[in-house]
Write a structure and sequence with these properties.
The protein is about 30% helix and about 30% strand. By secondary structure, it is of the alpha/beta class. The chain has a single domain, classed as 3-Layer(aba) Sandwich (Rossmann fold).
């Protein structure tokens, strides 16, 4: 409840994490793949959804803040994009237009409670096709440090069932990392 209020508050203004620029890691990833279906988990105002749709992808964005989805709808007007208000910890229960070839999470997973993280991965597994790619950006912490950051071991363990870590890159600026997972059968 507190997290929901925190994010809803920020969407009354311009959230500090909303650069309005697609992630270079996403740009690189789709340059190497033919367009298909993409899911942006915790899509915020839809910057990456818009970029995907402009590049031929059938893009779906999901966020639990209605104001963020409203901004995303304005940003993607006229493009092949589906935007939904929904709980990412209940992906398996949602009626999404998948399955997906690509999924992206830029800072959503690390903001979930441990219980929410445990529910997230099976839902993603349901919607991402075998052979699909999952790009995850998360704040990183050292083992035993509390806060909205995760260790590499925690992230890898969360996606151990149904996913293989294909690549890992340290983020720039604050301690963070990009994880590139392949969905296995």
């Amino acid at each position: 409840m507190v997290r929901r209020a925190f994010f809803a508050f920020w969407y009354l203004f311009k959230p500090p994490w909303d650069s309005g620029i697609p992630a270079p890691e996403l740009v690189r990833a789709i340059a190497q793949r033919p367009p298909g279906r993409a899911l942006d988990i915790g899509c915020g105002t839809g910057t990456n959804v818009r970029y995907l749709a402009e590049h031929g992808w059938q893009a779906t964005g999901i966020d639990f803040v209605p104001a963020a989805i409203e901004r995303a709808r304005r940003k993607t007007r006229g493009l092949p994009a589906t935007l939904l208000v929904g709980d990412v910890t209940r992906l398996a229960e949602l009626d999404l237009p998948g399955p997906y070839d690509l999924a992206l999470d830029m800072g959503c997973f690390h903001s979930l409670t441990a219980e929410g993280q445990q529910r997230y991965a099976p839902g993603l597994k349901r919607w991402l096709k075998p052979g699909g790619v999952f790009l995850l950006y998360a704040f990183q912490s050292a083992p035993g440090r509390p806060g909205m950051a995760l260790t590499r071991a925690v992230v890898e363990a969360a996606f151990a069932d149904g996913f293989t870590l294909a690549n890992y890159e340290q983020g720039r600026g604050r301690p963070s990392a990009w994880y590139y997972f392949d969905r296995t059968a």
